[in-house]
Specification:
Strand content of chain B: 5-15%
Distance between the termini of chain A: 31 Å
Strand order of the largest sheet of chain A: 1-2
Distance between the termini of chain B: 11 Å
CATH architecture of the largest domain in chain B: Alpha-Beta Barrel
Structural class of chain B: alpha/beta
CATH topology of the largest domain in chain B: TIM Barrel
Strand content of chain A: 25-35%
Strand order of the largest sheet of chain B: 6-5-4-3-2-1-7-8-9
Oligomer: heterodimer
Number of strands of chain A: 3
Order of helices and strands of chain A: EEHHE
Helix content of chain A: 25-40%
Number of helices of chain B: 27
Number of strands of chain B: 24
Structural class of chain A: alpha+beta
Helix content of chain B: 40-55%
Shape of chain B: globular
């Protein structure tokens, strides 16, 4: 994710969709949104960080 | 630090070293490097064959699915139709034995006649053409040696490519920027030629030879491109512009489409007409011989060239940039600009781009014009924001309920987007009629509840394994057209769970998985072999019906009503200020690296409850700084299978925010430690969902003191962040223990503070942390550094030092044997 630093808050490009209905979101899926999600959820290049385990 | 060689996926093959134009901005003939004078005018068949063999060898070694070869010059059409045909045939013969060949040519176009077009159609060669805009713009530089304009010939050539017969060959136009030209007129002239893509090229320049800046403007190139960008944005569906598309893509973490922007490792190599293997052509503007590697296709493999220091220097992403660039807020989009443009005598390429101010202004303008998502035109959403003080608390390894609350809220957006994407992807595929009906009914119910009882729906969507399910579905659909429909119909079960919790009267079909109806956040009802079940929901419970039976389930069994024996509700782990779900039924919970335990017996659940209450009391009393964050963000503990009772097992998963997995340990203090440790991973995973902390293109592997194997940077960051809490746990715990237990705790503290501090320095000096990543490294360092001065018994410190040395030595030995 890219970010812009606007002190005192740090802003992500993950859109704040809490006030958008799921129907609205589904009807407006954009390439940018798909890019964001592809990066977050199904990036096959990042398997090493998809899960962690520890044996302390 | 070991790493894998990055293969070349694009080969620029110089088929002719001379040109029929004399453009005064050409980097081949008009700049520092004059090596063209020593090259053969035209490549020989022997050189082409050897090059093709080298490409095939390279593709085979790296198992590349495809390689792009771009025929280039000078002017490649000067090679003539017959020679170009032979070149294409040789390349296809050798390379296509191993992988797909994407064959292209880039030309000034003046010789492009029907003969060439027919050849390119036969050989499937995509054609790109250089043109700088309208007639006046183009004629400013692109002229013959005698001063004649080339414009008419080029436009005629483009006309051929726009013809129906050759349209499929037309790959785009390349325009070198001259800020004396009118930007909008230039763009409109190019767009009128209907290219599938426009590529704007900043004129090659270095700090030694900066670009012209007429009129004294500090950012004429940004101003020129911004004028085009604004014009371009006025027309939805306008021709793609590679530079703008790349800025969009890199805003969201995707790869750039050009080596002039972004942090992608360079994957281009050049083969000259004499077979020399060289770096990218643009380096010719830096100094005489700058692109040289000393290798050639007759004596060297492409892998040897891939290991050349000058080539690997362009593959380091963030770590390959100067300090100024690494601290820059737009570095993920800019990537330091084109490597060549960073050159300055004395510091070589360790500088920002000579176009730094222009790139900064352009990228900020583009970002400012774009909402993060093109959703509702009237109310485009802003991005999730975390106040600096809370982000810094998280960076230090902590974060209270408010700080973690920001992460929880961002996950709400994320899950809504996931549902939207899932709906879109399901719509694009064909399900069976019954699965389609089930999915659509679930979707309708969810959208209804979203309006009717959003808070309750959000509680169900917040279930950790809802995201694991959606991830699984989207990943499956992304990888293959074949959809596992049993998975997507789980949406109906999610909708049913939300409806039950809302007490809405509704009836719908839900899937049966492994003999059960699964209702996220509620539990599982065993129903036998049926494929689907009908669930009827009322205000005080629900009833499930299949062909084999019918089972009523009361929601609040506190009234004493009996529950069916086949109903397995989610149990709660209860402590005074933190109640969590003991999740042992969800079908998507098995997403951690250790396997999930099957449904716990009543006695096992009671053991969990007893230990959990003790662990939570210990967390609040001894490690109170972690308690508010845990209570706010950790909702679920998932029991794991453990075939070695003495072994402590725990895990977190990026796709299951809010959950940790653990096998029930022997003692409450270890459960407290596992919870604190794993929740660090949960927090940092959610931060990764929001921000880039490091350059994920950096493929180097690093020493992680807690692992036998070297780790990628992001994984090292995760481990370091988690071990801050481990160190802190023992730091505090040792004061509450006595005797040998206190000694053990002191040794653990001494060991982990040493390991964690070392890992923080590895991160901080990697060069691949983003500015925000550095902020995290500094936050972690500020937490751990004072701990290094805390006194511990000499025996504990000695023991820790010996253990740390043994760990490091073992790693060094393994590293040596792997070489």
């Amino acid at each position: 994710m890219s970010l812009s630093v606007q002190d005192p808050a740090v802003v992500s490009d993950l859109p704040d969709l809490r006030d958008f209905s799921i129907g609205e979101i589904a009807s407006a899926v954009s390439p940018e949104m798909a890019d964001i999600m592809r990066r977050i959820i199904i990036d096959p290049e990042r398997p090493a960080v998809s899960a962690f385990n520890s044996s302390i | 630090m070991p790493g894998r060689a990055i293969p070349f996926r694009q080969v620029v093959l110089k088929v002719c070293s001379r040109c029929d134009l004399a453009c005064d901005h050409c980097y081949v003939y008009e700049q520092a490097d004059q090596s063209w004078r020593r090259r053969p005018k035209v490549i020989t068949e022997e050189t082409v064959t050897r090059t093709a063999e080298r490409i095939a060898e390279h593709a085979r070694y790296h198992a590349l699915p495809a390689v792009r070869v771009i025929l280039h010059g000078g002017e490649p059409l000067l090679a003539g139709v017959a020679r170009l045909r032979r070149i294409c045939e040789i390349l296809r013969r050798e390379v296509e034995r191993v992988c797909d060949l994407d064959l292209r040519i880039h030309t000034n176009g003046v010789l492009l006649d029907d003969g060439f077009c027919q050849l390119f159609a036969e050989q499937q060669v995509m054609v790109g053409i250089s043109i700088d805009g309208d007639r006046a713009s183009n004629d400013r530089h692109r002229r013959y040696a005698d001063g004649r304009s080339s414009y008419d010939q080029v436009v005629r050539a483009i006309g051929r490519l726009r013809d129906e017969r050759y349209r499929a060959l037309y790959s785009g136009l390349l325009c070198t920027i001259d800020v004396l030209n009118d930007p909008v007129l230039t763009f409109d002239a190019l767009a009128a030629l209907e290219p599938p893509l426009i590529d704007f090229l900043l004129p090659h320049a270095t700090w030694d030879n900066p670009p012209p800046r007429p009129g004294g403007s500090a950012t004429p190139y940004a101003d020129w491109l911004i004028a085009i960008f604004d014009r371009w944005m006025e027309e939805p569906g306008a021709v793609p512009v590679r530079m703008f598309e790349s800025i969009f893509r890199t805003m969201h973490g995707a790869d750039s489409l050009t080596e002039a922007l972004g942090l992608n490792p360079s994957d281009v190599v050049v083969v000259e007409t004499d077979g020399s293997i060289e770096q990218v052509d643009s380096l010719k503007v830096a100094y005489e011989g700058a692109p040289e590697t000393g290798f050639d296709v007759f004596r060297n493999t492409l892998d040897e060239a891939a290991g050349h220091p000058s080539i690997t220097a362009r593959q380091l992403g963030l770590a390959g940039l100067c300090d100024t660039c690494r601290q820059c807020p737009v570095v993920t989009s800019c990537g330091g600009g084109l490597y060549t443009h960073r050159y300055r005598t004395g510091t070589d390429f360790d500088n920002p781009s000579v176009y730094c101010a222009d790139l900064m202004k352009l990228i900020r303008h583009v970002r400012g014009r774009l909402a993060p998502v093109a959703a509702h035109p009237a109310q485009r959403p802003s991005g999730h924001a975390i106040p600096a003080k809370h982000l810094d608390a998280l960076a230090a390894g902590y974060g209270d309920d408010q700080a973690v609350g920001y992460l929880v809220e961002s996950q709400r957006s994320l899950r809504r987007v996931m549902l939207g994407l899932l709906r879109e992807q399901v719509n694009a595929r064909t399900l069976t009629a019954s699965d389609s009906a089930m999915f659509n009914a679930g979707w309708e119910l969810i959208t209804y509840l979203d309006k009717d009882n959003k808070a309750t729906l959000d509680e169900v969507l917040a279930h950790p394994y809802m995201r694991a399910w959606a991830t699984h579905c989207l990943g499956t659909m992304n990888a293959s057209a074949a959809v596992s429909t049993g998975d997507v119909t789980h949406l109906a079960a999610i909708a049913a769970a939300a409806a039950i919790r809302s007490g809405r009267d509704v009836q719908l079909e839900v899937p049966v998985r492994e003999g059960g109806v699964h209702l996220p956040t509620l539990g599982r009802l065993h129903v036998g072999r049926a494929a689907t079940a009908t669930i009827t929901i009322g205000c005080d419970g629900f009833e499930v019906k299949t062909e084999d039976g019918q089972w009523p389930v009361a929601l609040a069994a506190a009234d004493g009503s009996a529950q069916p024996a086949n109903w397995q509700p989610i149990r709660a782990l209860v402590a005074e200020r933190a109640t969590m779900a003991l999740e042992d039924t969800d079908p998507y919970r098995d997403c951690h690296q250790w396997p999930a335990a099957s449904r716990l017996s009543a006695d096992q659940a009671e053991s969990w409850q007893r230990l959990y209450r003790q662990a939570w009391t210990l967390i609040e009393s001894e490690h109170g700084v972690y308690a508010p964050g845990l209570a706010a963000g950790l909702s679920t503990i998932m029991p794991m299978a453990n075939d070695e009772p003495s072994r402590e097992i725990s895990a977190a998963a990026r796709q299951a925010f809010g959950a940790i997995g653990a096998a029930l340990p022997l003692t409450a203090d270890i459960l407290a430690l596992l919870m604190i440790h794993e929740f660090q991973h949960v927090k940092l995973g959610a931060i990764f969902d929001l921000f880039d902390l490091c350059d994920h293109r950096d493929r180097r592997l690093f020493y992680a003191p807690w692992r036998p194997d070297p780790r990628p940077l992001e994984a090292l960051l995760q481990g370091t962040y988690a071990h801050i809490a481990v160190t802190d746990f023992w730091r505090v715990r040792r004061h509450y223990l006595s005797g040998s237990e206190a000694e053990t705790a002191a040794t653990e503290f001494a060991l982990w503070r040493r390991h964690t501090a070392e890992a923080i320095e590895t991160l901080a000096t990697s060069g691949s942390l983003t500015p925000l990543g550095m902020r995290f490294a500094e936050g972690m360092r500020a937490t751990v550094t004072p701990w290094l001065d805390e006194p511990v018994a000499p025996g504990a410190d000695d023991s820790a030092r010996r253990r740390a040395q043994r760990t490091r030595s073992a790693w060094e030995e393994r590293r040596g044997s792997d070489r």
